[in-house]
Each structure stands twice: as C-alpha cells, then as structure tokens.
Amino acid sequence: MLPSDPFPASDFDTWAETYDRDLIAQNRFPFDGYEVALDTVVRLAAPEAGMSVLDIGTGTGNLAVRFAARGCKLWCTDFSAAMLEKASSKLPLTKLVHHDLRDPWPVQLERRFDRIVSAYVFHHFELNEKVALCTELVHMRLVPSGKLVLADISFLDSGAMDRFAESVGELWEAEPYWLATEAIPLLEHAGLRVTYQQVSECAGVYCVDGPDAPPAKT
After folding, report:
1. Tell me: the pLDDT tens digits for 66-125?
2. CB–CB of 65/91 below 8 Å?
3. Which of 67, 108, 185, 194 has a C-alpha 20 to 30 A away from that of 205?
4. What's the CATH class of domain 9-209?
5. Which is it for strands 142-155 and 73-78: parallel, antiparallel or unpaired?
C-alpha cells in the first residue's frame, strides 16, 4: 500500500493482541452498542443451518462466531493477518481469506453467498465507495434471495454526529462515518432495497435485500 494509506493493515496487526479486551473497555466510542449491533446483524440476517455466509473484515471473529453457532458455513476475510490468526482460534472450521477490500476480489471467493455480513469496516470508505461496494456485493457476490447486513459506526444525520462528537470530546476521531439520511437515498438510487436501525448513539445496522429476498423484518 501507499505510504499515505490512512488505515494500514499494520495498525490492525498491532491491535490484534488487545482487540477483544479493548472492546470491553471502550464502551463509549467507537464501540458503544457493539454487542447489540452484532446481535442485530444476526437477527436481520436470519441465518439457518447450512447457509453460506461471508463475513467481510472479520477481525477476531466476534460476528462470525454467532453464525458458526447457528450451523452456517463460513468464509471470513480480513486484511490483517494477525487478526485472522486470532479468528482462527475461535473458528477452526472456517475458511479464512487474507484480503483487503480495496484490492481485486480473491479467487477463493468466486462464488455467491446466502448472506454477506460485516461489522465496523465500511466506515473507512467514502460514501460513494460504500455505495459501490454494497452494489457490487449484492449483484455479484450474493444469491438473489440473499441479504447483505452491515453494522458500523453510523448516525442518523450530520446533526446527530456533531452532537455525539461534542459529547465525547477528545475521544472523537473524524472518519467518513455513515449518515443514514445521506446513505439510504444513494443506496436506493443504485437500485438497492435497504432498511436501517440505529442501535446506539454511534452504531447502526443496514440491511440490504437481494432482488428476490423478502423485505427485512425490522
């Protein structure tokens, strides 16, 4: 990657050792609502035993283990080898793929999935990139009856984000976080059916239905 890479894999390699402990300690920002967000992803995805599930940016596997417990067949990606190593201890039967979403799609994942999920990854991308990634995943990587479900740092609108940023003071780090009132119209303009739930002050879950999927139950 370029030296100016705003989020290099090496940062996450370093973080891997303490990541799960930090999730517990950082209960304000950026991980306020983290567990609720992951549980909401599972509820909206409505997984069934035997389903194929792709977890993008799995980290240490905290979202993926919820699907493994429901009997799903899992493929998990991350751009941090150290994070994948941590995930492997929780998910011994899972196919782990070292992949950066900014790179070409890996040949190991040239198939379609019943569900594609992700947690706390897409906020690194600008809004137009978020929309392009979601559109590609739904039309190229998901079965027509499938669902794409994303949990992330997200706010209803810029006003809600500004108020939250002020409330957390020095903890705040500015990144291209989701703003639902801006993202949803662009996702719908791209032909996607999307619902949104705010699950904490700084966390939200987007559910995008495949073209043949029944509408998500909120």
Report:
1. 999 999 999 999 999 999 999 999 999 899 999 999 999 999 999 999 999 999 999 999
2. yes
3. 108
4. alpha beta
5. unpaired
